[in-house]
Amino acid sequence: QILILDFGSQYTQLIARRIRELNVFCEIHPFTHAPDLTEDIRGVVLSGSPCSVRDPEAPNPDLSKYLGKVPVLGVCYGAQLLAHQAGGEVLPATIREYGRARLSDLRDENPLMHGISLNSQVWMSHGDTIKTLPNNYHVIASTPEVRVAAFQIDNQPTYGIQFHPEVTHSTQGKLLLANFVVNICRCAQDWTPEHFVDGAVAALQQTIGPDDQVILGLSGGVDSSVAALLLHRAIGPRLHGIFVNNGLLRKEEFESVLHSYQGLGLNVTGVDASEEFYAALRGLTDPEHKRKAIGRTFIEVFDREAHKVEGAKWLAQGTIYPDVIESVSVKGPAVTIKSHHNVGGLPERMHLKVVEPLRMLFKDEVREVGDTLGLPHNILHRHPFPGPGLGIRILGDITPEKVRLLQEADAIFIDALHRTGLYDKVWQAGTILLPIQSVGVMGDERTYEQVVALRAVTSVDGMTADWAHLPYEFLADVSNRIINQVRGINRVVYDISSKPPATIEWE
Ligand code: XMP
């Protein structure tokens, strides 16, 4: 595998994505916890950073445990660090070195540059530049503005590049990374979903004792469903899935998802606890209070169900790699805007050990593994749905009647997205019940009813999002259907706010 040492660049995860796309396994570690070299580590990538090597406070770890022992590739800050530590001169760039540039000079006999064409476009993003290289370093590529765009240490597979091969604007970036990980580091390209499944199943069988029972909370989402299928393959019915209906799911979702799980042969218990959740939510209007009440009730219900499983030793969770990286990141914890994590503290309370079979996978890898394991399309490509469900899409207090009203309107919207083929083009969609009434006219009668807002966004990871530019005819049709078919709603609006400054959910 490849070790990526993270110095805090916004692009570090992208380096990992690109290397994994080459079917080579890699892991990100913060530079503050640089692991020692083991036999599995075939090469090291040093990431970029918002810092400057000239700043005495900047990251400056001892790299001697890697240099000369395995191939090393420094990217941007990583390259500057390699030059700086060996006595090279790194200075503030005098001209702007941000954006597209073209390689104007190239040592194409160099293994890192193999197959890269002259004039190849690369993406630059740096405030410092390498002015002079240490004696035993030589330049292997330049651009008209940047003489040291890439270098190698003489007679040693240690390289530095000033540009970012991981962003798609570097058109041959992936080829350069392939040159490094496949040709120079000699990594096997065997990180495939099938390979992952075999390895994960074997590891689970080894970790989980022959009589141990494992509990997993299922939500109908991709991650928990794929985790369930992997565990099912490893330990069969000793996996006990618990799927709680909190009364805040989409229309008929509980029944249909439970049916899918049972069709896959999973050992799953469906628990309808809607009334308990409604009781806990009664009278609450503040979004964070509602989230806490829902989270607390979930733990109570789950705990009760889990205690019915004799010999339970493990709690499985669908944690994925971005969550893992986030929790060990070079950057400090982000400010809490909304408390997204719904079930803290469960394993401690239940004295269970935690098993997280997906903790090394990115979201799209989870989908590929799910596909390999036969997860049906409707679960595999389902939009994200928040744990507190419709509870945070009904603004103000929650009653069973409001839930039913919103479920009806939401079902019309989602169904229309499916029928027109737009569902897979948006990242997430849903309907929000607003806490206001407005006047309308139906036939000869005056109405005074509720308003729903439609929300649909495009996004890559939910961190930023744009409102989806759905066709007017589509919106007109959905609005018509909702107002005609859902009694109690006489007005539909469309949310045209992006994130930031808005958020995807309204609460
Ligand atoms: P926001 O509203 O923060 O949402 O832009 C970003 C993504 O997170 C989901 N979301 C939640 N998920 N519990 C969850 O499990 C929550 O409390 C929660 N709040 C928001 C939201 O649906 C979107 O996908």
TrEMBL record:
Protein source organism = Solirubrum puertoriconensis
Task: Fetch the Pfam families from UniProt.
Answer: GATase, GMP_synt_C, NAD_synthase
Q: How does it assemble?
A: Homodimer.
Q: What is its EC number?
A: 6.3.5.2
Keyword annotations of the record:
ATP-binding, Glutamine amidotransferase, GMP biosynthesis, Ligase, Nucleotide-binding, Purine biosynthesis
Q: Name one GO molecular function term.
A: ATP binding
Cellular component per GO, a single term: cytosol
**Could you tell me the gene encoding this protein?**
guaA
Record-annotated GMPS ATP-PPase domain positions: 191-382
| Highest taxon of source | Bacteria
Q: What does this protein do?
A: Catalyzes the synthesis of GMP from XMP.
- PANTHER family, per this entry? GMP SYNTHASE [GLUTAMINE-HYDROLYZING], GMP SYNTHASE-RELATED
Under catalytic activity, the entry for this protein gives:
XMP + L-glutamine + ATP + H2O = GMP + L-glutamate + AMP + diphosphate + 2 H(+)
Q: Which HAMAP family match?
A: GMP_synthase
Q: What is this protein called?
A: GMP synthase [glutamine-hydrolyzing]
Annotated ATP binding sites: 219-225
Which CDD domains does the entry mention? GATase1_GMP_Synthase, GMP_synthase_C
Q: Where is the active site?
A: 76 (nucleophile), 164, 166
- Which residue ranges does UniProt annotate as crossing the membrane? none
Pathway given for this chain reads: Purine metabolism; GMP biosynthesis; GMP from XMP (L-Gln route): step 1/1
